[in-house]
Each structure stands twice: as C-alpha cells, then as structure tokens.
Design goal:
Shape: elongated
Structural class: mainly alpha
Largest sheet: 2 strands, antiparallel
CATH topology of the domain at 46-204: Four Helix Bundle (Hemerythrin (Met), subunit A)
Strand content: under 5%
Order of helices and strands: HHHHHEEHHHHH
CATH architecture of the domain at 46-204: Up-down Bundle
Number of strands: 2
Helix content: over 70%
Strand order of the largest sheet: 1-2
CATH class of the domain at 46-204: Mainly Alpha
Oligomer: single chain
C-alpha cells in the first residue's frame, strides 16, 4: 500500500467512525455497515441543507433580477412619459425592491451556515444603502413621497407623489431616473459572477455536486461491503475512492 492509499483508507475509516488500527475480520463488517449508515445520514443531512439554501438563493436571485429590471425602467423613463406611466413604473419598482429586501432577509434567516447567511444579508443591506446612504438622494425621494421604513422597505405616499408630478413632472422623472440607475448598478454587481448572489449560488452548486458524488460512492460501497469487509487486507482499497473524494472535498472547502 503506497502513502496515498494509506491516507485514503484511513481518511475513510475516520469518516466512518472506525479505528484505523483495527481490522478484525469478525467485527469489521458490522462496524463498517454501521459506519456507512452514519455517513449516509450525515451526508443526507448536508444535502438537505444545501438544497434548501440553493432554493432560497434561487428565489433571492430572481427577486434581485426583478429589481434590476424595474430599476432599468426607472432609469430610462422618456421625457414623453405620462404621469400615469411614471407612477406605474415607480410603484412597480417599489414592489420589486421590497420583494428583494424581503427575500434577502428570509434567505439570511434560513441559511444556517454563517457565511451563506452573511452573503444574503449583504444583498439586502447593499440595496437599502443604495437608496439611503446619499443624503441628497434621500431628500429628493422624500419630496416626491418616498419613505424608507426601519425594516428597509420602501413606501410611496401617493398623494404627495401625485402633487409632485403636478407641480414639476420633470423633476420627478429626474429623481426616479437617478434612483433607478443607482439601484440598477447595485443589482448588477450582486448578480455578477463575483457578486454576493451569483458567487454563493455557484459555491452551493459545487457543494451539492460533491455531496452527490459522495452519496454515489457510498451507494457503491454498500453494494460491495459483503465481500470487502470480510477481508482485512482489501479493506483500505474498498475505501480509496471515498477517501480521495473526501480529501478533494476538504481541499475545495
């Protein structure tokens, strides 16, 4: 047995809760079967968590994409837009923005793992900061009826908005266009390959692939344990694939 086989075999035994120094043919089969079941349960638990995180981040990605589309519409309002069209675009943006902020909170709360939760939280914070960090932007938005609640959601005072449009429709369009362009920029960054949303989805997808491979390896081992666990000398070889897979997962994560 070379050093790689030794590390692989002992990595597998350690993962399955076996003592690397014991290879009794009378007890290895029973212990190994129990270890396989425990390993299967541990991996399945990780699969369930990762699947839930992927589903949640998928919804967040969709919500941020919806915000991006609504923001682009605000950022490119033509001068010929009617007051009704401008108001409709503003309301659509508010709905999309609030959905994204809410999705970020939901994803963060249910993510479990700290790094994944933090990534989701940053998405929500970045969106809220975009419409609140700049004092002139905040003041301009307040003048046309926009308000930012303590939970990060946006609301529109429709009476104030209508009055602002009646008084100076061009100023309203300029304010909305500026906000739309800023939010579009933030959403684009979040959805970029190195952004909070896309990079996390990519990481979770990779993790899901590793776990799937581990499950496949375990399934193969369970089919061959009858022969493998009966011969102490071949015990390490039976786990070489699983051990190497575990080492690979360790390096990746």
């Amino acid at each position: 047995m070379n050093i790689n086989d030794f590390v692989a075999a002992n990595s597998a035994r350690s993962y399955l809760g076996l003592n690397p120094g014991t290879q009794s043919t009378s007890s290895t089969g029973a212990v190994g079967q129990g270890g396989l079941r425990k390993a299967e349960q541990r991996i399945q638990s990780q699969v369930d968590v990762t699947s839930a995180q992927l589903s949640s981040f998928g919804k967040l990605k969709s919500a941020v994409s919806g915000t991006q589309i609504a923001a682009k519409a605000l950022g490119s309002l033509p001068n010929t837009s009617t007051n009704a069209a401008v108001k409709s675009a503003a309301e659509s943006f508010v709905g999309a923005f609030n959905a994204a902020v809410s999705a970020a909170k939901t994803t963060s709360t249910g993510a479990g793992e700290s790094a994944t939760a933090q990534s989701a939280s940053r998405v929500g914070r970045d969106l809220v900061r975009t419409v609140s960090a700049d004092a002139p932007t905040r003041d301009s938005l307040k003048k046309i009826g926009f308000n930012l609640a303590s939970d990060g959601s946006l609301t529109i005072d429709t009476k104030k908005f209508d009055a602002a449009q009646t008084a100076d429709p061009a100023a309203v369009r300029i304010t909305l266009a500026k906000m739309g362009q800023q939010v579009d920029k933030t959403a684009t960054q979040e959805l970029a390959s190195n952004g909070n949303v896309s990079s996390t989805v990519s990481s979770l997808t990779q993790r899901a692939s590793v776990l799937k491979n581990q499950q496949s390896t375990l399934a193969s081992l369970q089919q061959t344990t009858g022969d493998t666990f009966g011969s102490g000398s071949s015990y390490g070889n039976a786990f070489s694939g699983f051990g190497n897979l575990g080492l690979s997962a360790y390096r990746n994560y």
